[in-house]
Design a protein that fits this description.
- By secondary structure, the chain is mainly alpha-helical.
- Helix content is about 75%, strand content about 0%.
- It folds into 3 domains: about 220 residues, Up-down Bundle (Growth Hormone, Chain: A); about 35 residues; about 240 residues, MFS general substrate transporter like domains (Growth Hormone, Chain: A), CATH 1.20.1250.20.
- The chain is built from 18 helices and 2 strands.
- The longest helix is centred in the middle third of the chain and has 33 residues.
Length: about 500
Amino acid sequence: MSDSTGSAPNAASPVHPGDTSFFGHPRGLATLFFTEMWERFSYYGGRGILILFMTAAIATGGLGMTAATAAAIYGLYTASVYLFALPGGWVADRLLGQRSSVFYGGLLIAAGNFGIAGHSSFGMASFYLGLILIVLGTGMLKPNVSTIVGELYPEGGARRDAGFSIFYMGINIGAFVAPLICGYLGENINWHLGFAAAGVGMVLGLIQYRLGWGYLGDCGKYREEARASRPQAVRQLMIGVAVVVAIALALYFLGSRGTINVTLEGAAQATGVIILSIAVLFFASVLGFGGLDSVEKKRVVVIFLLFLGAAMFWAGFEQAASSLNLFAERLTDRNVFGWEAPASWLQAINPLFIITLAPVFGALWVWLEKREREPSLPLKFGLGLVLLGVGFLVIAWGATYTVEGQLVSPGWLISTYFLHTCGELCLSPVGLSSITKLSPPKFVGQMMGTWFMGAALGNLVAGLVAGQFETLPLPGLFVAVAASVGAAGVLFFLFSRPIRRMMGGVH
């Protein structure tokens, strides 16, 4: 699972600086480990059945949407989850502190899942409100819980890296279990039970988070030096909310009057253009007016290339819960000894591969480094994109056997997810780390934000591609995705040496 939302530590320290009660790490890490595990259980549990719920027939409790409409909603939703990590960090720094932001974010996430679960009683308003609450809550929780992890290790170093490795294991445990429980309840019993289970998981995470609050010491507390500017921050927040509400009301009014034609698909496409335009303008302004020397400018160009590569990668990878999820539901033989397994269970394959393969890849890079043969950053990005493309070629091959309505073995999807996971392990771990190393010191935070923007853009494109599931021949659709990401990977291979020179000695 791709969850690069780390942040640099500050001078805060836990109650017991020498505490090693959790596998040699501070006890507070256990609190954050299980908070993140349950939050990821909640997110991936709901996400795993979201597009299946939206496209399911109304008679079965679903929303009866077309794949195009459902995929547009899915893309906007998952893109917003990443985009709102930026204002979520701002709210923590200026208004609440990381610790309170995590708690209130978890409350919003739980309320959002229960809102979706209450769709049958309260209608579509409850469904859309639920998605919005999850976006807002995840934006507040995700970046800030990672920040608190960093604060547990004011000394930094290898022990901090090991702590994050344990923390990320919680991410993948939650992501692995979530589809098994929420998927079974949603697909086999009642859709709303699946979303309710996701909400219950978040509530469990909040309970243990509050019970373990004391183990965090001063980590994540609101900074006193920010209190003086708090009234100004509140005004800025209110202005921002007012602008967003005004734009939404204007679009609704113009759409209801027939002045403009507002559709979900059109909104998703426009959002993609806006994200890309903002990124281009940001990088252009930093290069033109950031006061950087020639070495720093070259490194910023490299970060822009990484942004594009990451966006391409997530655009393919994040189809796991959209187009590939629909493939699992409609075209995959899931019969096991006379019992049909839920389609969403295949969503557990990626985190299972991450748990088993991450140590292997870590050992491989160390082994290659000792022999001075470890691939450079652009080569790892290229390898990740090429493996992603090969994975889509595999599923395109499998899709050729479905043209007459024949169901295919789940082995096609499992093989695809294996290749995609290998690609993720090549690209994702080095992505955010390299940005922090390449960024000019005064732009580190903003440059880290570009990683989230790349992930948001990729998730949005993944939704738009999935919208073609019912209109284009699947072999051709998957081959087109494979060609696009594969070509991007080849470009990283071809230009790896110039990119390395532009990195100015950063590894």
